């Protein structure tokens, strides 16, 4: 993931990270904060208990622009297995870009704007490490009537945690009315932003697309609230792992289908039935007959963590898979992992062994998320 | 008692014929929150540079190397239950193992406190 070949880019919050004492590391071509002085455990707990501010400006923001929603949505549907045509105004959806073999090229968030005069636009947020792959692929797949505009003048700030929305609503009152997985344009202390109620920690919270030039002022205004602390990539990783969420390049790659990846929630019924996306033959066959391998959650019995790359075995027996993410889970209070195993060993409760430094660490297949999600779901949304 | 330091950020305190080994305060800061420690068992024979112990932070696993040759006389088993001690008291209660000193000459290749401080300043 880390690109050390060329000059590293900086986000608009770089100076603030340094001022806050962050340890900066190369990540996906950017210099990013991995942790602040209090450390990953404290940052993790801060996000679960109160609110954390994450700079995710390295992620790619882009807009599909077409003549009307149906045209733009159909153009995107040709590349992803989700229902984009029936995505409501102001609604957000997680989906995956697919290659011709049905492998995941990237996972991304898509938002349909609320305003009628924005009809025909879809806002995309893609992984930093995949921008150079995604943008040409998307552009090449679009009809003449739809174009891809890459956004370069916006920063992206996530505020996550049980108190996140209260904190943001003090500056942008409309944020309090957003339902989970919906967003809208609104002012934050008079600054025009797009705020959506989403994130990647398993907690309630928002992601704010803000003008690059105003990003530092907005971040400082949020950090002035004692309920908020800055959070680095280290805790972002332990939070998303506990939430059972995939990290591209680790838990998903171009060989893995969304069925194997256990993310079929991103495929709505019409798309499952009709197909019409890259790799539909494989994906529909896997939906029908089951995939050969499946992403599962693993809880280790002891204290030793198993990291990415550890082999998964039957206890005392044959190899049946590989760990793709793993580490110590602060909220769980012990080591957890996710990985791919042959489907016949993917059932909840199956006892497996993870091979670490030549020793078999006993583990069990468990349901994900490892920590219950606390997303904000309204009864009638 | 004399304390020496290695470039791998271990400290080794020698008193009589016995040495106590741990990781430095700088090392624990670099690692961040320690969540797992595996120390060697008594009787294990070590050569300088051998992987002797494992220390894992939330982020990553790191090896702790034997700074000298010798035989392990005791591993600090308390660290298995309280790995965070490595962050709290790395150069005291959170020692990793005790060992014999097979070749005192090897100690001469290690740094004293002043030299180690100067070395850390260059990092």
TrEMBL record, chain A:
Q: What is this protein called?
A: aminomethyltransferase
Q: Where is the GCVT N-terminal domain?
A: 13-269
Q: Which reaction does it catalyse?
A: N(6)-[(R)-S(8)-aminomethyldihydrolipoyl]-L-lysyl-[protein] + (6S)-5,6,7,8-tetrahydrofolate = N(6)-[(R)-dihydrolipoyl]-L-lysyl-[protein] + (6R)-5,10-methylene-5,6,7,8-tetrahydrofolate + NH4(+)
Query: Record's family?
Result: Belongs to the GcvT family.
Cite the entry's keywords alphabetically. Aminotransferase, Methyltransferase, Transferase
Q: Which GO terms describe its biological process?
A: glycine catabolic process; methylation
Q: Which domain of life is it from?
A: Bacteria
Q: Where is the Aminomethyltransferase C-terminal domain?
A: 294-371
- Tell me the residue numbers annotated for binding substrate: 207
The species is Roseibium suaedae
Q: What start and end residues bound the annotated signal peptide?
A: none
Q: Which EC number(s) does UniProt give?
A: 2.1.2.10
Pfam families cross-referenced by the UniProt entry: GCV_T (PF01571), GCV_T_C (PF08669)
Q: What is the lineage of its organism?
A: Bacteria, Pseudomonadati, Pseudomonadota, Alphaproteobacteria, Hyphomicrobiales
Cellular component (GO) terms are:
glycine cleavage complex
Enumerate the GO terms in the molecular function aspect: aminomethyltransferase activity; methyltransferase activity; transaminase activity
From TrEMBL, chain B:
Residue numbers carrying N6-lipoyllysine: 59
User: What is the protein name for this chain?
Assistant: Glycine cleavage system H protein
Organism classification? Bacteria, Pseudomonadati, Pseudomonadota, Alphaproteobacteria, Hyphomicrobiales
What remark does the entry make about the cofactor? Binds 1 lipoyl cofactor covalently.
Keywords on this record?
Lipoyl
What does this gene product do? The glycine cleavage system catalyzes the degradation of glycine. The H protein shuttles the methylamine group of glycine from the P protein to the T protein.
Q: Which GO terms describe its biological process?
A: glycine decarboxylation via glycine cleavage system; protein lipoylation
Query: Pfam families, alphabetically?
Result: GCV_H (PF01597)
Which InterPro entries does this chain map to?
2-oxoA_DH_lipoyl-BS (IPR003016), Biotin_lipoyl (IPR000089), GCV_H (IPR002930), GCV_H/Fam206 (IPR033753), GCV_H_sub (IPR017453), Single_hybrid_motif (IPR011053)
Q: Name any cofactors this protein relies on.
A: (R)-lipoate
Span of domain Lipoyl-binding? 18-100
